[in-house]
Amino acid sequence: MKILVCITHVPDTTSKISFTEGDTKFDSTGVQYIIGPYDDYAIARAVELKESNGAAITVLNVGGVETEPTIRKALAIGADEAIRVNAAPADSLFVAQQIAHVAKDGSYDLILMGRESIDYNGGQVHAMVGEILGIPSISPVMKLEIEGSKAIMSREIEGGKEFLEAELPFVAGCQEPIAEWKIPNMRGIMTARTKPLNVVEPVSEDAAVTYGTYEMPAPKSGVKMASSVDELVDLLKNDAKVL
Amino acid sequence: MEKTALKGGEFLIRDVEAKDIFIPEEWNEEQKMIAQTCEDFIATEVHPKLDEIDSQKNPDIIPNLLDKAGELGLLGTSVPEALGGFGMPFNTTMLVSEVTGKGFSFAVALSAHTGIGTLPILYYGNEEQKQKYVTKLATGEWKAAYCLTEPDSGSDANSGKTKAVLSEDGTHYLLTGQKMWITNGGFADIFIVFAKIEDDKNLTAFIIEKEFGGITMNDEEKKLGIKGSSTRQIFFNDCKVPVENMLSERENGFKIAVNILNIGRIKLGAAAIGGSKAALTEGIKYGNERKQFGKSLTEFGAIKNKIAEMAVRIYASEGAHYRAGQNIDDAYDAFIAEGMEAGKARLKALEEFAIECAMLKVHGSEVLDFTVDEALQIGGGMGYSADGPFERPYRDARINRIFEGTNEINRMLTIDMMLKRAMKGTLDLMGPAQKVAGELMSIPDFSAATDDSLFGKEKKYLSNLKKAGLMVAGGAVQKLMANLSDEQEVLMNLADMMIEGYVAESVILRVEKLVGMKGEDACKIQIDMAKIFLHNAMENIGRAGREALYAFAEGDEMRMMLMGLKRFTKEEPFNVKEARRRVADYVIAKNEYAF
Ligand SMILES: Cc1cc2nc3c(=O)[nH]c(=O)nc-3n(C[C@H](O)[C@H](O)[C@H](O)COP(=O)(O)OP(=O)(O)OC[C@H]3O[C@@H](n4cnc5c(N)ncnc54)[C@H](O)[C@@H]3O)c2cc1C
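Output (structure tokens, whole complex):
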């Protein structure tokens, strides 16, 4: 089985967010980058499938050279080889087109990625990749088993659980608890540097979205202590306007 | 760039260039990933269980965590690949110690297992012993403990009474005696035990399996801190040890004990730095949250002062640790190039830098105690509460000044080793000391055009501090001669001068190199930190020097040396308050120790 795992390179969840150039650019100084947490689960599941069913795992990232430490980490967790599409991830469609282009040549049985990135949280790349390739895409997937040429999946939906089946190949947007989150071990880290990381140039595509300016959410206002129920009701009605 | 090989202890007589030291800002991608694995492991597996660990209700919890650490490969970082480990460079293994050093009781169990538990066999065992034991210790299948201390033999480690008697048929030793304070004792499968064979003067080391029998132990010790780490008294009663389980040669045990502790020391220092970073971050976070008089605590100058002082000491000590660690790796590479066997080269390299190891054990553990104390102070009442984030670090830090050789013993060792090397002629202290003495007689050079380059002035200060050290140490040796070892107060003063001077030089060189990499603008805070540390060091060295001189010198000679000391510790006015504020404001804005 050949699995393609697409990962994002995103600011650590505890990063302080600020903008530069007249609020048109994210200020990355001092920001620590990580594998997108949902993508992390996608890799972890791929590695589990490799252990149980046998698989060759390729990780893919659309990004500049600065994303290579993040890609190496995916190799350390257990991917066998990596592809970096040498371009800034301009928007969801652009990224999906790059992924689809690589996937077309690779004849993968399974394309896994996080349900969404945690920088722009678009949550559309899996659907777009499926569409371009003409294969199903399913998201979020919380459980994934492979039996022969079939995948059995489940996820929580409002008021219950949904079970799905699909023929390979297809695209899955992953979410915990699809796998146990993996910390790369020493052996993985030491072998990561010897695994191939191939850089390919992007296919020329235009981004569909242009970004204007960014704005920080208004700071949380202070806490008001209500001394009586009446006052509380009054505050909720007239101050917070939620009643 | 060719590096100039430095010998251990030479920092006092030779100026080192920034390009010749390693700085933590140079960790490569792989080392950062290793550190991140340790960080993630401690955060996800250890920190959620701290109370459970400390309660000691479940005796399997620490061994289970060691198993998990073993699965990640964290038990085999120092072990060569041929024995199932990863053969990482020494500095990388120190980085592992630093990060796992945030693991409280678990950190102690981990370092006892991988350090004093595993390394005696790795470095002194024969091939069969290594194959049989080290391979299992590297994965965690077996856990190890190290039994040196006895009720009547602590700091005086060679005075143990545990006896080993050869059986009549010559196939095994019968070992009898009592060991005390044994970390991991409660669950260890393997014990490195030091005992005297018959009436030997010196110790011999043995590898003892729990299965050999004749081993009993007391309940877990009740301790001030690291309450979750297993600490036992162990009784050996005619424990039957096959002769092939002797480690190295008869009477070589004390040397093994000393050399293994030596490695443990610098790693303990590194672990203390990890603990310090975590404690400071807690202090900053709490200080940012908590409001009094309508302000965050971190808006108050008195609190900023504490935060800056902690950050400065941590940053300086960290740099000194990895500078020495790289020296150890470089010396190892040089020995290997000469054709030396790997284990031997590692030991020789560590022995070469034993002075630095002892100094850094003292410095790291004292930075940690300073930090947990000041961080707790920021917490106020919450600092004192067992439900707050400061109480456990405060209690757990304290052990570090006691084990792996107390800080008093390590201070004495620092000077003792320096003087021994001077006597042997491997470290030329006397020549430079005489030169400084000569300088005292001459008219001081007031012309010294002020050097406006970055750290121009500070480099001059550093060279003066070395002169101060050489002058006071040289004077003490000359005056006190053989009595020096009885004048421990003076030895403590001398050790403090050496330690402060070494760390001060390390931080200046670290930042100088960093500025070379990133430019001055990007390193303003680091420059402040280096200057603040140097300022502190000059004060501390001046004071220690004066106390020593008052103790042993007299008359004109004392006056002359005091004048010299004044000159060598003279500093132009430096607004350390403002510098500390800048450092504090930086980390306060980052809401963590952010270097
Ligand atoms: C939690 C814990 C875990 C430990 N783990 C281990 C372990 O795994 N294996 C092991 O073998 N040991 C272990 N030890 C023992 C530890 O190494 C010793 O406690 C330490 O070496 C000090 O010895 P001591 O307790 O006998 O103190 P002492 O030697 O009695 O020292 C008491 C005080 O006197 C000072 N002092 C002693 N001699 C001199 C001198 N010549 N000049 C000036 N001052 C002096 C000391 O600095 C100290 O301040 C552990 C101890 C503890 C508390």
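Chain A has one domain: 2-212.
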